[in-house]
Amino acid sequence: MKKIIAAIIIVGSVLMTSCSKDLPGGNDVIAAGRAGEDNPNGGGGNNTVSVPAAVLSTFNTRYPDATNIQWKKLSDGNYKAEFFRGGVKWQAIFTPAGSLVKEEHV
Fold first, then answer.
1. Does residue 92 contact residue 103 with C-beta atoms inside 8 Å?
2. CB 61 within 8 A of CB 35
């Protein structure tokens, strides 16, 4: 059973990696929910493959109540999350190592 689950995760990861889009300015948009959660934004499912585990860990610990999460890889190599908390739109920027650089509600 564990081998089947691992195979599904690997196949899903490969398929979802191909869904990232390059934007002008070198930013990649990664439509994603939390690990193991369907994307609430209609992006066809979870696509957290391109977001480092350290970033996801910091994000999930810091914002456990976040919804409608959208990730962008910035041209400087950092990752920006745009999300909602209590009906308020927020954004947070993280280094690839998972350190919070900036957070603000927008």
1. yes
2. no
